[in-house]
Amino acid sequence: MADVLPRLEAELGEIVASDAETLDAHRHDSWMLADLMDLQGNPAPRPLAVVRARSADDVSRTLRLCRELSLPVIPFGGGSGVCGAVEASPEVLVLSTRGLDGLVSLDDESLTAAFRAGTMGGEAERIVQRDGLTIGHWPQSIELSTVGGWVATRAAGQYSTGYGSIEDMVLSLEAVLPDGSRLRTRPTPRASAGPDLRHLLMGSEGTLGVVTEVTFSLRPLPEASQGQVFHFPDLGSGLDPIRHVMRQGWRPPVVRLYDAPESHRHFGEWIDEDRAALVLLHEGPRALVDVELAAVAALCRDAGGVEADAAIVDHWLEHRNNVPSFRELLEAGLVVDTIEVGAVWERIGAVYDAVIGSLLEVPSIRSATAHSSHSYRSGTNLYFTFVARPGDRAEMADVYRECWRRAVEATLEQGGGIAHHHGIGRVRRDFLAREIGEGGVAVLRAVKAALDPQGLLNPGALLPER
Ligand SMILES: Cc1cc2nc3c(=O)[nH]c(=O)nc-3n(C[C@H](O)[C@H](O)[C@H](O)COP(=O)(O)OP(=O)(O)OC[C@H]3O[C@@H](n4cnc5c(N)ncnc54)[C@H](O)[C@@H]3O)c2cc1C
Q1: Which residue puts its alpha carbon closest to atom 11 of ligand 1?
Q2: pLDDT at position 285
Q3: Angle CA 241–246–247, to nearest 5
Q4: DSSP assignments along 401-423, one per residue
Q5: pLDDT value for 51
Q6: Is the dihedral of CA 455, 145, 83, 441 positive or negative?
Q7: What is the distance in A from the centroid of ligand 1 to the CA of 145?
């Protein structure tokens, strides 16, 4: 390793950084367990160096050199991933895409905008909004994540029920493959030209290539936007009207149903305890919004829903991107995390009951709650939050893993899918074969071996260890 850094510096020049501050900032992503390890005096090590790519050419040169040096390399966007997909060591190089940012082109007629992959999400959205357009992708982490990271993790935003998730928005992309060559898909509205290569990169978590440019299919900013809120006796009775909304073809961008403890936590000022709040936001041409508001309200009332103060919608809009300080909770001895899963309508109630029931059996658990925030004709997701407080702080990591194991096992047993939008990383990789089958893992390994025979791109993420 001693001669690798000088070689990187000689070949790549000023884009190589090895100062302590930069290395520290690229040790891991925002995985709760990594933060806990930091706090408990067992921090993830620093990488060997960080390359700050400014162009796709920089990425190509870096990957070619890494291949020649047999040096593992981890792509790094905003570092907001929450599954441990980034974990450095002194034997790896981190390749930051943050210098690879900015708008490449905007076509108002075709409603497309191309961005370099390291553009921060909020910045990309502000740029298209200047022209009265929107990407429509609103992850809570919009100010913390890059557009390339959205692709690499198969992300979903808060408005996904109406506007779709990242796979519905990416018209085309460019990536640099592990041998330094470029893959570029054509920006056409649809193609029947073999398997869709965009999907090779979506969700690949930096293991198959580095996304360098993303072209989005945009939409105009809506003429009207109006919310409404209903409350129900419990989460189960609120799910049914959502199913009918989706089935009938209404598409409110925001459809969020909180179980009673979460409703109380977020909207206690307006909603009685023991009620489940359904927050809806309707957007589009005014006439369409009016019709949808009325139709969805009727479905909610038919299902026993009671209308609540629409001020809840404004409250949600105002606070929706607030990031809780998980670090403070960890410092206070609380083990906390969120786990998002999905299931078809017929299974979703069973998944909710099984996961909450299993989490509540953890001896030190303080709370286990959930909401549904991304709905489809076929089903919806559940976003669980658990909080535990082990008596002995030395047990925090074990309790964390136990909560995850229980939630994932219970989801699988009830027929759900284990990862709705945060990805696999390290926290779920040992469950991947149960999600996609041993055959599915074998296909991924074969693709990986073909593109990256030395296994240099983000080793340890996504694929289970052999
Ligand atoms: C407070 C908070 C709220 C969140 N809310 C949401 C949400 O609403 N919806 C949601 O989907 N997610 C959410 N996330 C998770 C996270 O923001 C997403 O996974 C996001 O897409 C990651 O983007 P990033 O640029 O930060 O990627 P990083 O964390 O830097 O990287 C994530 C993975 O992608 C790879 N990668 C990054 N950039 C590239 C690239 N250009 N090419 C190839 N691989 C790359 C990395 O190697 C890594 O494997 C949230 C996270 C936090 C901390």
Answers
A1: 155
A2: 98
A3: 90
A4: HHHHHHHHHHHHHTT-BS-SSS-
A5: 98
A6: negative
A7: 6
> Does ligand 1 lie within 6 Å of residue 101's CB atom?
no
Ligand 1 atom index nearest CA of 458:
47
Alpha carbon distance 212, 191 (integer Å): 21
Measured in Å, residue 148 CA sits from the centre of ligand 1 at 8
Q: Is the CB of 154 under 6 A from ligand 1?
A: no
Q: Which of 88, 92, 100, 91 is nearest to 147 (CA)?
A: 100
Mutate to test the pocket of ligand 1, among 87, 95, 97, 140 (most ligand atoms within 8 A of CB): 140
The reply to whether ligand 1 has any atom less than 6 angstroms from the CB of 94 is no
What is the C-alpha to C-alpha distance for residues 438 and 365, in angstroms, rounded to an integer?
A: 33
pLDDT at position 462, please? 98
Q: CATH number for the 4-96 domain, one of 3.40.50.2000, 3.30.43.10, 1.20.1600.10, 1.10.150.240?
A: 3.30.43.10
Low-confidence ranges of the chain (pLDDT < 50): none
* Phi (first) and psi of residue 284, to 5 degrees: 140, -160
Residue nearest ligand 1's atom 33 by CA: 205
Cβ(271) to ligand 1 under 6 A? no
pLDDT at 164: 98
Residue 274: DSSP 8-state:
T
CATH 3.30.70.3450 fits 224-319, yes or no: yes
Q: Could you tell me if the CB of 152 is within 6 A of ligand 1?
A: yes
* β-pairing verdict for 133-134 and 335-344: unpaired
Pick from 213, 35, 219: nearest CA to 137:
219
State the chain's maximal CA–CA distance in angstroms. 71
**208 CB near ligand 1 (under 6 Å):** no
Sorted by where each begins, the domain ranges of the chain are 4-96, 103-220, 224-319, 326-429
